[in-house]
Design a protein that fits this description.
432 residues, alpha/beta, Multidrug-efflux Transporter Regulator, Chain: A, Domain 2, Rossmann fold, ten-stranded mixed β-sheet, four-stranded antiparallel β-sheet
Amino acid sequence: MDNNFLTVDDVAKTLKITRQTVSKYIQKKELNAVKINKNYRVSYQDFENFLSSNSMVSEPETLYLKKSRNCYLDYEGKSNEIEILNYKPLGYLKSINDENQSLPNKMVFGDNYYVLKTLLPKYKNKVDLIYIDPPFGTGLNFSNIENDLAYSDKLVNSEFLEFIRKRLFLLRDFLSDNGSIYLHIDKKIGHYVKIIMDEVFGYENFINDITRIKCNPKNFSRNAYGNYSDMILFYAKNRDKNIWNEIKEPLTKEEEIDSFPKIHPVYGRYTTNPIHAPGITIDGDTGKEWKGILPPKGRHWRYSREELTRLDDLGLIEWSENGNPRKMVFANEHKGKKVQDVWNFKDKGLSYVDYPTQKNHDLLKRIILNSSNKDSLIIDCFAGSGSTLLVANQLNRNWIGIDNSNQSFDVIKQTFKKEKIKCNFYEYVSID
C-alpha cells in the first residue's frame, strides 16, 4: 500500500463497516478517493473530512498516521499532499551560462519549490544524496560582514513548517531507491521538523538525529544551559538499502596512546591480543599443540599453527614471563573508529567566510563520502555559499544547486571561477 493513503480495506476496518459500504460512499462521491494502480485510495485529509461531515458513521477506532509513530502535526494552512505533488507551475529554466552541457552539474537561481517542480520529471528517482541547510525559522535577516543581505528567514512557526514540508515532498521523489537526505536544522524547531519528516519519508526510514557542535561554549546570562549545538536529521528513501560506505574516523592522539600503550622500537605504538578464541577444535589444526603448549581449555588457536610460527619468527608474538603468547597489534594498522552521532564541526566566524551560516567543509565531506558514491548525483536546494557543491565536486560527485539569493549566486560564481569548476547556470522564469 502507498504509505500516503488508506486502502478501502483500511477505511472499512477503521469505521467498522463492510468494504462494500465504503465503495458506495466513494461511488456517491461522499468520500473522495483517487485511483492508484487500478485501486481506490483515500488520502488522510479526505478521510478526516469525511469523518467530520458524517456524524451518522459509528465512532471509529483511533486513526493514527502510519508514518508518524502515533503523532500527527496539524496546523492552519497545511496543504494536501496530492495538491502539492500535482501542482504544475508555468515556468521554465533559462540558461545564463552553459559551460559544459555534457555535465549534469548546474546551479539554478530561483525559488526552490518551482525549480524542483521543473527539474523533477528529468531527475525523479535519480538522486543518491540530498543535503539541505534551510532557514531555521528564526524570523531574522542574515547579512555578510559588509552588511549585504544574504537571505531572509522571516517565515516562522506553522508557515515555516509548511514551507519545509512542501519541499520535502518534492525532494522525496528525487531520491533514488538507495538515496538519503540530511536536513540541518536548529534545535528550537528541529523536533517539529522531525515529525514532518516522519510524515513525508516514513518514521521507519529515520536513521539518525545527529548533534553537531557548532561553536565554542557560550556564557549566556539567562537562566539556561548554553546552546552550542544544532541537529542534522538523517533519513533514507528505503532503510537498509541506502548507500552506506562506513567511513571510519581516525583515533585522536589521546585515544591512540590509551589503546596502544606499548612502544615497539621499529613499528611504534602497539597493544597485544590473545591468539586463541572460544570453542574447541577436536580434529583440526587449530586445536593441536604449538610450541609445546595447547590452547586453553575450551578454546582453540585463532590462527593456523603455520601462521603462528610465521608471526613468531617475525617477532610479532609477545611472550609473557610465564610463557603466555599474545599477538602484537600496531596503531599504524588501525582502520579507524566508527563515527558516532555527536559531531564536532564548528562554523567559522563571519569574518572568515563569504556567506553567513556557511557550513564546515569537513562536515559535508563526511556526509558525502558516507552516503554517496563516485558519480552519484547530489542536490542542495538551499545552496547558500555553494559549499555542498564545491565539496561534492572535489569528491567526483555530480551535483545540482538551487538558491534564490542574489548574494548566494554571486558568491558561488566567484568561488567556481576561482576553483575552475565548470557549471551550467540557469534562472527560473515564471510565466504564471
